[in-house]
Amino acid sequence: MAGYTRQDTANNIANGNVIDADDFDAEYNSIEAGFNASTGHKHDGTSGEGAPITKVGPAQDLVVSGIALTPKTTNTLDIGTSSVQFKNAWLDGTLDTDALIVSANASVGGTLGVTGVLTATGGVVGAITGNVTGALTGNVTGNVTGDVTGDVTGALTGDVTGNITGNVTGDVTGALTGNADTATAWVTARDITLTGDVTGTVSGVNGGGNISIATTVAANSVALGADTTGDYVSSLVAGTGVTLTNNSGETATPMVAIGQAVGTTSDVTFNDATVSGNAIVQGNLTVSGTTTYIDTTTLNIGDNIITLNADEAGTPSANAGIEVERGTEANKTFIWDEAADKWTAGSEAIVAGSFEGPITGAVTGNADTASTLATARNIALDGDVTGTVSFNGSADVSITATIVDDSHNHVISNVDGLQTALNGKEAVDVEILKADTDDNLTAGYTATADDDGTKSSGTYTPAPAGGNLKRIINGGAFTLAAPTAAGDYTLVIQMTNNASAGIITLSGFTRTIDEGYLTTTDGHDFFLFITKVNGFTSLTIQALQ
After folding, report:
1. For the chain, what is the radius of gyration of the CA atoms?
2. Which residue stretches of the chain have pLDDT < 70?
3. pLDDT tens-place string over residues 96-117
4. How far are the Cα atoms of 33, 180, 236 from residue 4, in angstroms, in the given order?
5. Could you state, in order of their start, the residue ranges of all structural domains in the chain?
6. Helix or strand or coil: residue 234?
7. Cα–Cα distance measured from residue 428 to residue 446, given in angstroms and rounded to the nearest whole number
8. Closest by alpha carbon to 133, among 101, 155, 110?
9. Which residues pair with residue 131 across a beta bridge?
10. What is the pLDDT of residues 193-237, one digit of tens each?
11. What is the C-alpha separation between 514 and 542, in angstroms, rounded?
12. C-beta of residue 471 within 8 angstroms of C-beta of residue 451
C-alpha cells in the first residue's frame, strides 16, 4: 500500500453539496488501508510511503541517518543498563570512549597500544613493550629483549629468569651475578704501557674517560723503505754539465751547480737552445746573427707599425719592402723605390675595392660608376606623350609630360572597374529629385534592407548609415538602444527570432508602443518602427504572426 490517497477527486465532499455515503466510505477505506498494521505506510522515502523515520524515542532522542546512529544531545543516552544488557557487539572500525571497563576476560588479536597507565591487578601474561613504573610483585619468566632506559622505581620482588638483551640505564642495588657486556668503569684500574720502537705509559685507566699516552720513538728504530711508506730519495746523480757536492751522509746538504749563475736576474749563456713548448721573453729579444727564421703557420705581431731598414742612420739609398717567395715561380715584391721616391709593385696589377686621391696619367678601362657624365644627355618622350629634360647624372630630374590631343582611344573593358561603376549609375529623373525645390514625387524607389547581423549580447544602436531599412536576428538577450546619429530620420527594422532568442531590453527611447508584443519564440518576426525628430525618439513594435 502506498499510503493514504484522496479518493474524492470530483470534490463531492464540499460545503453546499449533497454528500453520498459512497464518497465517505471510499475515503475511510483509503485511510484504513494507508495505516493498516501490515500493509500501511512503510516510511521508506518512496512516493506515497512517507519520509524515512530518522528520530525515535519519547523525546526523539535517538537520531538515525544513512551513515551514523547518534543521540540528539551529547552524553545523554546509554546502550543497555547494568540489569538489562545487550548480548554481543561487532564493530569494524574504531571504538573511542572515555573509559573502558571489561568485567570478564578480554582478548586482543592485534597490538594493544596504551598511551596512559596500564594497571593489571591479576597479572600480565605475554610481551610488554613500553615503560613499567610502579611496584611489580611476582615472577617475570621469559626473555626481556630491547632497551630498558630509566630507573625501575618501586619494589621488584621475585626472580628474573632469562636473558636481558639491550642497555640498562639506572642504578642496580644488590648483588649482580654474571658478566656485563659494557660498563661505565672497571672495578680495578689498569696501566697501559707501549714497548718496542715506540714507548709510553699511562696509569690508573678504569674506562671512565678518554686517555692520552705520551709516546717516544726509539732512535734508529725506523728503516726507510722497509718501515715507511711514500717517496724518498736514496741518492742524487749528476747529469751532463751538472756537478754535485756534499752528496752523502744522513745530515748532508747536497749542492748542485752548472758552472754559471742561473738566477731570475742573471745573464745566462748557452750555445744552442731548443724549446719544445712555449717560450715567453719578458724583456727585449736581440738576435745578432745574419739570418732569422720564423717557421710558423701563423705570425701574430702586436706592434702596429713594422720598421724595415731600421739600422739606416744616414741618407737612404737602399730600397725596402716585402718580397713573397713563390717557389718555382718568380717572386713578387712591393717596394719603396728610393731612386723614384715612390711605392712600386713592378709590372704587377693592384686590385682594390676603391681608390681615393688624384690620379696622374692616363687611365685605361671603363669606370663602373661616376658622379656625372662627361657630356650631358637629353631624355625625350615621343608619341602620344611628349616631354624633354637634360640629364648629366648629378641630380634626379623630372620630365613635364604632355598628352597629345586626340592621340589615343580607351576601351572601357581595359579600364579596371569602370564598367561596374557605370552600371551602378542610374539615370536621375528630374521630376523625382530636386535640390532646394518644393515638388511632388511622381515616382517611387526600391532598396535592399541593410543586414545588421545576429544580436546575442551587448547593446545594438541602429543608425541610418547603410540604409534606413534594416534587418537583424535575435540570437540571445541584448539591449536595443535609441539611435544617436545626428539629424532627423525614420528607421524600419525587421527582426526574426532564432532558437537562441533572448529577452530584449529597451534603452533611451522617449516613448515605446506595444512593447509587450516581443517574444523569444523561435521563428517569430517583428517590425520595429523608429522615428527620431528634434532629439525625441519613439519605438513602435508590430508582431508579424
Report:
1. 62
2. 1-3, 37-45, 47-50, 122-123, 125-127, 129-138, 140, 142-181, 225-226, 230-232, 234, 247, 249-250, 361-365, 424-443
3. 887 888 877 888 877 877 777 7
4. 7, 88, 125
5. 1-52, 450-543
6. coil
7. 14
8. 155
9. none
10. 999 888 989 898 888 889 999 999 887 777 776 677 766 676 778
11. 7
12. yes
Beta bridge partners of 459: 479
> Is-contact 161 140, C-beta < 8 A?
yes
Beta-strand ranges (E) seen in 99-167 are 136-137, 140-141, 144-145, 148-149, 156-157, 160-161, 164-165
Cell of 485: 546619429
Phi, psi torsion values for 27, nearest 5 degrees? -65, -45
State pTM to two decimals. 0.26
Sort 462 into a burial class: Cβ within 10 Å, 0-12 / 13-18 / 19+: buried
Burial of 495 (0-12, 13-18, 19+ CB in 10 A): buried
Give the three-class secondary structure for 153: coil
| DSSP 8-state secondary structure symbol assigned to residue 482 | P
pLDDT at 1: 44
CB 157 within 8 A of CB 177: no
How far apart are alpha carbons 459 and 259 in whole angstroms?
108
Sheet holding 55-56, edge to edge: 55-56, 62-64, 69-71
